[in-house]
Amino acid sequence: MNKAIIVLIIVIAGLFLAAVVILGKDAVRLLKAEGYLKYSADEAVELAHKKCVQCHSIDKTAKYCMRCGPPFVVVVHNMRALIGKDKEKYRGVEEIRDGEAVAITQVWNALVGNWEDSWRKQDLAKLLENDAALIKLMNTPVKEREIEVALTGKSAAGADLTIMKPMK
Ligand code: HEC
Q1: Which of 1, 4, 31, 116 has the most CB atoms lying inside 10 A of its own CB?
Q2: Which residue's C-alpha comes closest to atom 43 of ligand 1?
C-alpha cells in the first residue's frame, strides 16, 4: 500500500479516537449533571466546592447552621434559582443542573449539617417550589442517599477542614 494512504488512515483513526475520548467524557459529564449517572462521593465534594464558590466564599456555606436558616436542600434550590432568575447579572456563572443539585445538597448536608428533620415536609416542599429533583431528594431517607452516607462523619468542623477551603 502507498505510504501516504497508510499515514492518512492512521491520522483519521487518531482523530476518530480523539473525538470518541473527548465526546465520551463530555457525555458522561452531562449525564451526571442531569442525574442519569451517579457522582462518586469525591466527585460530588469537588463539584460542590466548584459550583458554590462562584459568587461567595465557601466559608458562607461551611459556617451556615441550623440557626441560620432552612436546610441545605432549600439553600441549594435558592442558589440555583438565583442563577436562573437573573441571567444578566450572573452571566458567566455556571448553572446548577438537577443531578448536580442533588449531589451538592448531600455534600453540604454531610459536611456541615442536615436539619431537614427539624422542618415540616410541607414547609420544605413549599420552599422548594417546583424543584422536582430536590423534592425527590427531600423525600428520600438519608440512609438511602449514597453520597450523604459516604461522607457522613467527615465534618467541616474537624480534621476535614482542609477540604472546606475555597478552591479558587
Ligand atoms: C449566583 C451566585 C451564587 C451561587 C452560584 C451560590 N450562591 Fe449562595 N448566595 C448568593 C447570594 C447573592 C447570597 C445572599 C443572598 C441570599 O441570602 O439569598 C447567597 C447566600 C448564601 C448563603 C447564606 C444564606 C442565608 O440564609 O444566610 C448560603 C449558606 C449559601 N449562599 C450557600 C451556597 C451554596 C451551598 C451554593 C452552591 C450550591 C451557593 N451558595 C452558590 C449567591 C450565590
Answers
A1: 116
A2: 55
Q: Which residues in 33-67 are b (16+ Cβ under 10 Å) and which e?
A: bebeeebebeebbebbbebbbeeeebeebbebeee
Identify the residue whose cell numbers are 423534592: 135
Q: What pLDDT is attached to residue 156?
A: 58
Q: How far apart are CA 121 and CA 50, in angstroms?
A: 29
Ligand 1 contact via 54 beta carbon (within 6 Å): yes
Q: What is the mean pLDDT of each run of 10 residues along the chain (168 residues)?
A: 90 92 89 94 96 94 94 98 92 95 97 96 97 98 96 63 43
Grid coordinates representing 82 are 438565583
CA 75 to centroid of ligand 1, rounded, Å: 7
- Domain ranges, ordered by start, for the chain: 1-33, 39-164
pTM of the model: 0.85
**Burial (CB count <10 Å: 0-12, 13-18, 19+), residue 113:** middle
Helix axes 72-85 and 98-111, enclosed angle (nearest 10): 140
